[in-house]
Fold these 3 entries.
Entry 1:
Amino acid sequence: MSDGAFDIAESTPPKTTQIRCLSDLVDFLDAWRALAGGSPMQSPEWFISWWHFYAERDDELSVLLFHEPGGLLIGLAPLYIRIVGKRRTICLLGSGEASTNHTTWLAAAGWENRVSKAAAQFLLTLKPDWNCVQFDSVDADDISINATVTCLLEKGCLALRKPLHNCWKIALPATWEEYLLMLSRLQRKRCRKLQRYFESGLVRVHTVTNRAEFHRGFEILLHLHGTRWGEPDKPLGCFSDQQFRAFHETVALELLKRNQLLLIWLEYDGKPIAVEYQFIDKKTVYSYLAGMDPSVTDIPPGNLAMVASLQIAITNGCESFDLSRGDQPYKAHWRATPTASYEIRIWPDHLSGRVEQTMWGMYNLAESGKKRAIQWIKERVPPLFIDVWRQLHSALTGKRRGPRKVGSST
């Protein structure tokens, strides 16, 4: 955008249009994709599929479109209103069980600040009609939503932030050899050894490229994810939830049409041993879910899948590899760095709003205290004891520590 256009954006507020019906969005889908910059989890494919599967009967769609004076779409806020009884909560599309990462407003270059203020103004205008605004999975460094929250606070609203798991991302160099040099000496040695499994043909990588391959790959995903993370009452892990499974099967097929699905599996001696369910755009691979066969012990399926995924990302010219939310130690070994993420809640400054803010704050303090206590124990108890305790817990309850509970982090 030229300097002149930037000046206009700084001085001219956009026109805000509230979209309440999916059919009214049809004419804006291409412009939406352009604003999203190809990001799969900010695309209409992701959010519209989510609405089809997760919207409750009384929920109201409330997508905000922002246009510049000439009529060009320069921003979008993917919102809906969750209605339970008389309570109305403004939420982000993709919230909760879909576990959308990096939620934000979409804005054209030079219009970010104006779009954030326009979103805040809309919420203020609507304020008599909502009890709470809830933003899930907002990155600490996200400028757009944070600017909206600041505007709402300046106008007298109340807000609290709840820390979620960090989001982890690897900054990728141009070549695999350059990436190896980023790793520790021991990790680099392991990766070179893993590479030989692919070079020898002992392990083969299969990438889904069409609908026929998708159905096989998705079945492998369900099977290996369940094999690794399934429990007696949830044999397919998080895919045991039919709504979650149907949403992902639908959105994955939609992203496949746009070459944004990266579903790969590894075969060893002709048998699938690991699978990765990921998304891709021009700059980033987004790791979402995985599975592996824990009975395979002579080679490390999980590490092999990670090597294959990183090599695909580098080959495609990606600049980063997003490992999603979750503070598992392995992420740092691959040279990922964390960014904090938050759930943000906002209330009107009246009696019920102040009561809700206080109650939610007390709940968060109790949860934080519990986490600190667990961390304190971990730092003082031998790892072997913790492993034994986990095995006993699993044996007694049938529950495993999974990579992603529905609606939580990887």
Note: Residues 1-9, 404-410 have pLDDT under 50 and may be disordered.
Entry 2:
Amino acid sequence: MAGEELTGKVAIVTGAGRNIGRAIALALADAGAAVLVNARSNRAEADSVAAEIAAIGGQALVHIGNVADAKAVRAMADAALAQFGRIDILVNNAALRREKPFAEMDYGEWREILDITLDGAFHCTKACLAALRASGAGTIINIGGLSAHTGAAHRAHVVTAKAGIVGLTRALAHDLAADGITVNCVVPGLIGTPRPTGQVEPAHHLRHDTMTGERGKPGDVAAVVRFLCTPAARYLTGQSIHVNGGAYLGG
């Protein structure tokens, strides 16, 4: 539903070219925010999201850059400030979700996941921090993962990175409360998203059932993110909010 609750606000959404990131970028734009659409390398996907935002009368800026690269992230924050003059919302969504038995995993494969998912959130938060403080009502949303709470086979790197995101959320909520910045984690689970050709659904999804009997949609996650960015959610911070149709009940 179109609204104006975020009119005048500026959001950065990482990994926004497809699936959940795309849905979040569109939801925030629908609420009135100007959105920087980040993608690691696929400009066509990012441009498509920006075009969808423009089609509903919103403002969007595309920035291509790997969140694991601190200099690229600094350039992204600078681009948002140059274009829009402020940053009020940061959504740390960029992540890799690979599967491999731990015994066969090498350090490079381990490090690749942590670099993007966990270090990327660190780099983005550091780069945007001064602007978020200046906002007076800054919002950081970290996108978690169901397997961080349930565990999963063949996902030691992903589970570790996403569990770290939960810890980072709680720590930042403490550190940044005095700056008027809320920090929360939205945890998707069993969300139906298109996957690249040849990529199968994560094995751990097959071990869980929802109470609703349905898989979620990216828009279900985006709706929660949208709410957490609004003035109505200012009393929420340090929380992990699960969007999983009852597949997992926990904090």
Note: The mean pLDDT is 93.
Entry 3:
Amino acid sequence: MESKIPVISDLYRCRKCQAPAARGNSYCRRCGIVFTAQDVGYMEAHKRTVFGASPWNLRDRYRCVHCQEWLCITDQYCRGCGDQIDSVEKSMMKARVQELAARNWPSVVGLAVFVILTFFAIIALG
């Protein structure tokens, strides 16, 4: 299941607990309730402002071990499948992120070298 990271314009608040939610979420990430049509209507009428929204998006870097929805490590429930996230699942999500980081370090080094060489080329030509 491929999902996109929510953008600022998609942010809402849960009707029950006021936790951040995004358009298309099926469950609340804090209290775990299923969003009904009435909940969605309420959230549409009570959108969050853009201030304070970006840090919430940037923390969504983990994937649910069941449905692969984007999550924050502090989430208590998956907003895609509604699974309650326990400490074992959080450990698995952290391990996956660390594994990906370990595999991608050559790309980061390559990008850094490219940026430095480009910077020096601009200075030499300028």
Note: The beta strands are 11-13, 20-22, 62-63, 70-71.
